[in-house]
TrEMBL record:
This is peptide chain release factor N(5)-glutamine methyltransferase. GO terms for molecular function: peptide chain release factor N(5)-glutamine methyltransferase activity. It catalyses: L-glutaminyl-[peptide chain release factor] + S-adenosyl-L-methionine = N(5)-methyl-L-glutaminyl-[peptide chain release factor] + S-adenosyl-L-homocysteine + H(+). Residues 88-179 form the Methyltransferase small domain. Pfam families: MTS. Its EC number is 2.1.1.297. It comes from Candidatus Collierbacteria bacterium GW2011_GWA2_46_26. It is an enzyme of class 2 (transferase). Keywords: Methyltransferase, S-adenosyl-L-methionine, Transferase. One of its GO terms (biological process) is methylation. It comes from the Bacteria.
């Protein structure tokens, strides 16, 4: 209660006026209703995303817990799951080994796991992050989403630094990729509420992804692929691709180039 009444006093009069004007979208109204919060005092929530208010976000048809230590999973990223599951089917990988780097809520790795369970395909999945609170939440989501969460490993690791030396068939990564100078231009609902460590990709937004690319040759299997989400201001030339790798770009559901698909050169 104290926090609620203190909040408006920390805001400028202009900001207060803007917040008082917040109008919920039909999606936000439905989301709040679904989680039992049909009536909400808009003057107390500022521009807080509704997912952080309810603590839930839907991704790939599944219900994920979210909190301020993780990014709210985005609709565009669902295609990473689809690409991974289709690749596993196409290549007839009988027991794929999968790494989800920068797992956050666990949405990518756990959605792939849920799809493979439905197909009776056994798997081994590593979910990793530098953030311990994020890993704790991913673990909680695993318990809720998978009836028997087996062959899941939660790893605190800067990229793949602390991974065991195994080869992965699928490497999934949605790492921070926003150029630092663009962070202040993000909507307040993002920059004031989502973790900066999930967003800031360094001066030109490629620092973290380039570092991962340099590690991939050691960790990818001969038939493996890495699917890496990128900023829409980037293209293939934005990245430093190690000699051993080849890469192509795939568009998201909004027809924006969004995913780097990386494999060993044949
Ligand atoms: C954009 S969020 C993506 C979260 C989730 N995978 C998703 O798609 O919603 C990026 C995540 O990468 C983590 N991260 C940032 N830098 C990292 C690094 N160097 N190594 C591992 N994880 C990192 C952040 O803590 C954050 O959880």
């Amino acid at each position: 209660m104290e926090n609620r009444s203190a909040l408006p006093n920390t805001l400028s009069p202009l900001h207060k006026k803007r917040i008082q004007k917040r109008v919920l979208t039909p999606y936000e109204i439905n989301h709040l209703r679904k989680y039992g919060l049909p009536q909400i005092d808009l003057s107390t929530i500022g521009e807080k995303p509704v997912e952080y208010i309810t603590g839930h976000a839907e991704f790939y048809g599944l219900d994920f817990l979210v909190n301020s230590s993780v990014l709210i999973p985005r609709l565009e990223s669902e295609m990473i799951v689809r690409l991974a599951v289709n690749y596993i089917q196409k290549e007839e990988l009988a027991h794929p080994s999968i790494a989800d780097i920068g797992t956050g809520s666990g949405c990518l790795g756990l959605s792939v796991a849920a799809s493979l369970v439905k197909q009776n395909t056994p798997y081994t999945i590593y979910l990793s992050d530098t953030s311990v609170p994020a890993l704790n939440l991913a673990r909680e989501n695993a318990g809720r989403i998978l009836s028997s969460p087996v062959n899941l490993f939660f790893q605190e690791s800067h990229l793949m630094d602390d991974y065991p030396r195994i080869k992965f068939d699928i490497i999934l990564a949605n790492l921070p990729y926003i150029p630092s100078k663009n962070i202040t231009k993000l909507p307040r609902s993002v920059r004031d509420f989502e973790p900066l460590s999930a967003l800031n990709g360094g001066p030109d937004g490629t620092t973290v992804i380039n570092r991962l690319l340099s590690q991939i040759p050691q960790y990818i299997s001969d038939r493996g692929i890495a699917i890496i989400e990128i900023d829409d201001t980037h293209d293939l030339n934005s990245f430093s691709l190690p000699e051993k790798l080849q890469a192509s770009l795939t568009r998201d559901l909004f027809d924006v180039p969004r995913f780097l698909i990386v494999s060993l050169k044949v």
